């Protein structure tokens, strides 16, 4: 895998540390929000919004400056942090993390601008910005220790967001979320330390540098498999995979709308991204070995999530369970280890973030108007709020995977790419697509069709601010659905390099197939 | 008889002994002048003891800096060790005395304003703080079993009285008595252990014991008397450190004692006991590591699991923090267990990891108990309900306490994470994977406890609308603890760079 080493060495280390800025700008914003104090409430929102908009703009600039032909890490910035332990501030992005960074950059300003916390705005905004810094950091970290720090620190703001601004059962949900994720990370921390120390001889020093460990480190088969399991547990909780998914419906349902959007949009992706970056890249042999188990868990997640979603009476819980199903597809694609499947998986991470994020926004708007999320209490909204229903329809169809919208591209690539390596699992998993249509369309029918009763008669139509907010989501949904090539062409080289990396270290050979997306 | 020519006056290394002399001198001055003058104005006794400990701490820090180049050595004919391992603990002890003097004065002021007709700020309490400081300082640098025992007794006797120092609360009296009776047992175990070790080796100096035991001809490998001695020493220290199953006094005493004294016991008491334990086992018994390591392993597992599980079912914050301190002691044992892998080149990592853990923990404990003391107020009510809604009335204070709680839970970018990471790293590098995983899992269990306190503070409705008054002393203690926690959490490099120099003990 000399390609990647060379790419890392050659990539332009820009004078302006753009990735560091992506992490620090939200933090500075959080400091500003807190320091303005209670006397200037109008400034806090402005400070929060401007720092998250600046972060979003920086992430878009990264997207524009990103070299699609380069499969290695770009915008690399590396400084010593804790040299005594071989830990450095090492940041960089490639095609796999690029769109997650952009998604994080875009989603936060939208949520901050579009969703009101209703009370205690100052701490809410500060937590939001700290959360953005943490998420951003975990997507750009190329150091195991640094990644862990960001991965873990994200829990604190999310805990307070759910616990402080959530619904009735918020404390229970927040605590469950915190403890589940932390329990997973406990194994990962031991795994991280063991990886660095066991690779000491082959790398030549104790280092937590991801690239050094993955490219030059060598572990025995047993070591690699144990360590992979330690990492996989942490990511499985975060994704979440069956059977450690139980925190998700609670956390999603009880979180405030903004928290749900962020949770579904980017936080869960830290798990799938971690599986790809710190599972497959770091432990190729173990990833090949563990494939059947992960396929099985993914497929169980797809079917279980879909069936459970069908049974829900709470609209928000329904969307939450649909996340379990969708993320099952992503995990299936990740471990199918073919160009198309992984590319589809990465794309689906972004798609799910956009469409499920938008669904949570819509459900939040319904709750604002009706103060209920029970499907049984909603009826005939299409009559009183046709534009609202239209937006809901588009987002929902994207989540189902209608051709022409973004969900279709990702899901289709995953299924077609995994067909060669995980045929029977794909065949079973495909039923999940059918079930997705079932639960979402059925929910749509119950909520929007029919004659509105008295309570639903006064359902307000979409407001301008909400419309603008949703239009951004719909624009992304339609654009990537119709013209996914710019996105795919940036993801593919990195995915191909990753699979070559796996092939060079194991006896796994990917089945020959056409280029993805052609 | 020509005494004049035979007598060689011993050279007294005044400078090397200056930290001890400073503590002792300040104590004598306080007692003497205090006894001969009318009651001082409020806060002056505390100022005096804080200054004394501060001076001693600075002197110890100067020696610590000198030792960067000079080799570790012994003082007073091998009775005291002069090494960075002990001196870092010494500095921590002085810090604990300084901050406890302030919180003690604070608490006295509060109770004077509230209920008591006359101030409870009395000279003896501060004198006892300094005495405890001297005992702890001797413990951490003692290079001889007898000297170590002297230190333990000086410390313990002061702590018994301090625990009972709130004369108006029966719980405080009860805590003092309980601690005294159980502590007496522990001292007996220790003495018996010392006697047996002396019986087999004929030595009391830690280095000398190490040398004798290294030669397996003079003391056979499975000498029953020696092993019994080591076991009794482990039990005695297990009591002082509060390891499961010798921890049963901890929750009662921690709850009953005045809160500032609890913080003092959790920080200074823990540092002294852990450092003395590690020094004893690493210097005197390395050749028997294969015998004591399994016992330490078992104690570590029990301490971690029992400590954290019992912590989460408590409803009183002081009891919670008591059990959490038990669980933290388990982490320190993980470091000792790693240090027991004598053959491994990473064994010394375990020594520095345990030391750094206990030093960082003592800062957290001081800050946390100071915070509890502030919230509890004069009524000394420390149930979880009292913490409800503190964030609404005192947001900055709540944020500071939250940082300390998160650090105890081991969240990254805090010193607590650095401490845990160091211990886990030592365990993994000596291939104690089981212990590493167990330690992390118990840290997650314990995290629930800190979350419960945070939930009470941030997410519950306040019981009183009036913000709690926080004095300068309270702010200072909490502020310094938070700053240390965050700075060392983000930039631990200088502490870690000490690593190697910390582990070169006098041998």
* Class of secondary structure makeup of chain A: mainly alpha
Poorly predicted regions of chain A? 1-14
**Structural class of the helix and strand makeup of chain B?**
mainly alpha
- What is the number of helices of chain A? 23
Number of domains of chain A: 1
Strand share of the residues of chain B? Answer: under 5%
Give the biggest beta sheet of chain A.
Answer: 2 strands, antiparallel
Order of helices and strands of chain B: HHHEEHHHHHHHHHHHHHHHHHH
What's the overall average pLDDT of chain B, rounded? 88
Cα-to-Cα separation, first versus last residue of chain B: 39 Å
* Estimated radius of gyration of chain A: 22 Å
How many β strands of chain B by DSSP? 2
Number of helices of chain B: 21
Which strands sit side by side, in order, in the main sheet of chain B?
1-2
- Assembly state: heterodimer
Question: Uncertain spans of chain B, ≥5 residues at pLDDT below 50?
Answer: none
SSE string of chain A, helices as H and strands as E: HHHEEHHHHHHHHHHHHHHHHHHHH
Annotation, overall tally of beta strands of chain A? 2
Cα distance, first to last residue of chain A?
26 Å
Number of spatially distinct domains of chain B? 1
Percent of sequence in beta strands of chain A: under 5%
